[in-house]
Amino acid sequence: MSNPPCLPAPELCQSILQELGVDPALYLNGNLEVCTPIDGSVIGRPHAQSAEQVALIIDQAQAASLEWRDVPAPQRGELVRLLGEELRAGKERLGRLVSLETGKILTEGLGEVQEMIDICDFAVGLSRQLHGLTIASERPGHRMMETWHPLGVVGVITAFNFPVAVWAWNAALALVTGNAVVWKPSEKTPLTALASQALFERALERFGKAPSHLNQLVLGDRSLGEVIVDSRKVALVSATGSTRMGREVGPRVARRFGRSLLELGGNNAVIVTPSADLDLALRGIVFAAAGTAGQRCTSTRRLIVHASVKDALLSRLKTVYEKLPIGHPLDAQTLVGPLIDKASYEAFQAALDCAKAEGGQVYGGARVDMPQAPDGYYVRPAIVEMNAQTDTVRQETFAPILYVLAYEQFEDAIALQNDVPQGLSSAIFTNDLREAEHFLSASGSDCGIANVNIGTSGAEIGGAFGGEKETGGGRESGSDAWKNYMRRATNTINYSRELPLAQGVKFHV
Known about the structure:
Elements: H1 9-19, E1 34-35, E2 42-44, H2 51-68, H3 73-102, H4 106-126, E3 134-135, E4 142-150, E5 153-157, H5 165-176, E6 180-184, H6 190-207, E7 215-217, H7 222-230, E8 236-240, H8 243-255, E9 259-263, E10 268-272, H9 278-290, E11 300-306, H10 307-323, H11 342-357, E12 361-363, E13 382-385, H12 391-394, E14 401-407, H13 410-418, E15 422-423, E16 425-429, H14 433-440, E17 449-452, E18 464-465, E19 468-469, E20 476-477, E21 486-494
Parallel strand pairs: 5-6, 5-8, 6-7, 8-9, 10-11, 10-16, 11-14, 13-14, 16-17
Antiparallel strand pairs: 1-2, 3-4, 4-21, 12-13, 15-19, 18-20
């Protein structure tokens, strides 16, 4: 570990929180212990809430939503614009805090805050474009149209790996569409949430015309998330996490006829064809597979490469993997930081053991000794050559494992790509137009994200983000994802003096 920051992680973390305006009473002497994956030290002790307190928070949010929905959408957009300004001013500090709390390298921490800024910009423009359709009516003297209205309270449950960006994706759209937000971050990353809330409250104070309790935090374990999931006052639950979590959240929300927006697991593949630019493919694969220590939902887990170029590409991958700088995430030279915790490390090792038992040949995967951080779980990213797509390969492991599979026929590559339960992100590297178009067609990738000549991770906020199958079917961020946060009404206006019925029905009284 070279050139770590001069301050220990706890002191650095608390210094940043104070600079961002977070009251020390909110993150000291509480009953929720937060450890940094950098060295395992405790960096904060915020206060976990009770189920009764969460129920009160939801009531307050519902009251706020009734007032906020009557504020014109462009004015709601002004609040989000001010939030974007606060994020710009605090980007460097919040980005560092993301790195401290998650173990991401600094450029990725800063990139996450930039995503927050970008979605604010997107949402501000959207606040003047919340439009419905005008529809031709079959009845003379009638006009038909659709209008969109706020849902009320939106519950947002986020995961540790993107502790603040996913909240921003949801909150920016929820706010401009007229809703109040109740946010439960991962219990592993509550400090970045406290910092984001402080920036939001600063924007709220500058805005001056918004109701209290428009965006509120819920800190604690999964039982508090269950209060949000089960509350009939929460119209939409947007939950990001594992497929296991989604299997619980989806049915529980549906049981009360609420809405859910699920962003769950990914088992993302890159196909490399004979015509591919291998230099380009190499860069795309390494970032997507090893970046964030493999802890992105869009991380590349599988490499499906044509047999004719497999050896050449694999040799280059191994060389790059052996040289990847692993260490303190705030060190500018580091490209791979630590896994989030011991449980993640154990899952990583268990998956490699299973792959070996199924005939896999493993390169890398060892724990990296960090004398200055003996309690941090740093690992060498692993490449695993597999003879077939086994049960282990079909299962997502949230760690830097890249399974390598060979193919002969293009149709076989597509079949391998799709033959997993998840359907989030996918990519192909090819210079063959027919292969690229086939990959993007209905008979190609079955994922919500399909890329050509770029990797599987690094989505932009302009496009809707999400996937199919066990990924949950949700869509967040750009495009028309705003419709998730609103209800649609179809309106028919009769401006004639007659009352013709639809479908030619006659009913004279």
